[in-house]
Amino acid sequence: MDMTYRGTHDFDKEELQDLFLSVGWSSGHFPEKLVQAMRGFETVYTAWDGDRLVGMICAMDDGVMTAYIHYLLVRPGYQGVGVGKTLVEKVKETYRDYLRIVLVAYDEELGFYESCGFKKAKDASAMFITSLWT
Questions:
Q1: How many CB atoms within 10 Å of residue 37?
Q2: Partners of 36 in the beta sheet?
Q3: Three-class SS state of 55
Q4: What are the backbone dihedrals phi and psi of residue 81, each rounded to the nearest 5 degrees, phi first?
Q5: What does the DSSP assignment read for 83-99?
Q6: End-to-end CA distance of the chain
Q7: Out of 25, 33, 73, 111, which residue is the most buried by the measure of CB atoms under 10 Å away?
Q8: Nearest CA to 49 among 75, 25, 67?
Q9: Tens digit of each residue's pLDDT (9 = 90 or more) over 79-133
Q10: Any idea where the domains of the chain sit in the sequence?
Q11: pLDDT of 42-79, one tens digit each?
């Protein structure tokens, strides 16, 4: 693997669709919306194996105190080799002067995020509304 990392907001819709669908995320069925969404994030870091997009992390922030990691995706064949941790470290470095970096994790992801330094809140629960796109 010849892994490179970079910050970017510009993607081809096919790149995003392929990455999102590789991890089974339904948002991959809306590649035009993903292209638009990437332009709106404050911070986007990507991992590339040659010219293939294999991972990304996206974060938004309030400009001074709190940053929110919204997406972290790593193509299945690249999981477990440090790509995700490297992307998380890039976000942690970007927001090192902020008071808090927040994310919502599924139970099976807790071990990974704890290994990156995150702690599970004892008195909070994730809440969301999912809109069905037509």
A1: 18
A2: none
A3: strand
A4: -120, 10
A5: HHHHHHHHHHHHTTTSS
A6: 39
A7: 73
A8: 75
A9: 999 999 999 999 999 999 999 999 988 888 999 999 999 999 888 887 888 776 5
A10: 3-115
A11: 999 999 999 999 999 999 999 999 999 999 999 999 99
- Tokens for 64, please give them: 């001074």
- The architecture (CATH level 2) of 3-115 comes to 3-Layer(aba) Sandwich (3.40)
**Backbone Cα Rg of the chain:** 15
Token pair belonging to 83: 């790509």
Residue found by looking up tokens 């929110």 in the block: 68
CB atoms within 10 A of CB 39: 10
- Report which residue type is found at 128: F
Number of CB atoms found within 10 A of residue 98's CB: 16
Tell me, what amino acid is at 107? D
- The two tokens of residue 27 are 């948002």
Q: Please, are residues 54 and 71 in contact by the beta-carbon 8 Å criterion?
A: no
